[in-house]
Amino acid sequence: MADSDRLNELRRQRTLIADHLAWIDRDIAKITKIDAPADRLPSSKPTQRLATRSAEAETTGQINEWSEEDLETESQIPKTGCWLWFAAVILLGIGAVVLFITLNY
After folding, report:
1. Each residue of 28-86: pLDDT tens digit?
2. Which of 4, 15, 38, 53 could be 59's S-S partner, Cβ–Cβ 3.0 to 4.6 Å?
3. Total Cβ atoms within 10 A of residue 49
4. Which pTM does this prediction carry?
């Protein structure tokens, strides 16, 4: 079970990296005014282009599948942490006020 979880995580990371590289290629093409993606430039070997295309085709479906799940899960974690910090600061503030009143009166 742990191996399949690790494999799924590695595939997810590969998908994210492929998506990030595609974004970088688009930005490079925009900046240099080249219409062709960077993987189609003459400097790349045909086998690299084929591997890139097959990896992109494989990962496109995975990106769509994981994007909704990841957004739901990742958005809940920071919200919970923020509320915990907020509650801790409020409690410390109330404690400081009570201590101040107790010591001064």
Report:
1. 988 987 655 555 554 555 555 555 655 665 666 666 666 555 555 555 666 778 889 99
2. 15
3. 14
4. 0.32
Q: Say how many Å lie between the first and final Cα of the chain, rounded.
A: 62
Tokens 């890139």 sit at which residue?
52
Cα separation, 9 vs 3, in Å, equals 10
The pair of structure tokens assigned to 93 is 């503030």
Q: How far apart are CA 69 and CA 75, in angstroms?
A: 10
The sign one gets for the Cα dihedral 36, 41, 45, 48 is negative
Rounded-to-integer distance, Cα 36 and Cα 101, Å: 71
Sorted by sequence, the CB contacts under 8 Å of residue 11 that are 6+ apart come out as 62
Q: At 96, list the tokens.
A: 């400081």
- Residue 85, classified by CB atoms within 10 Å of its CB into exposed (0-12), middle (13-18) or buried (19+), is exposed
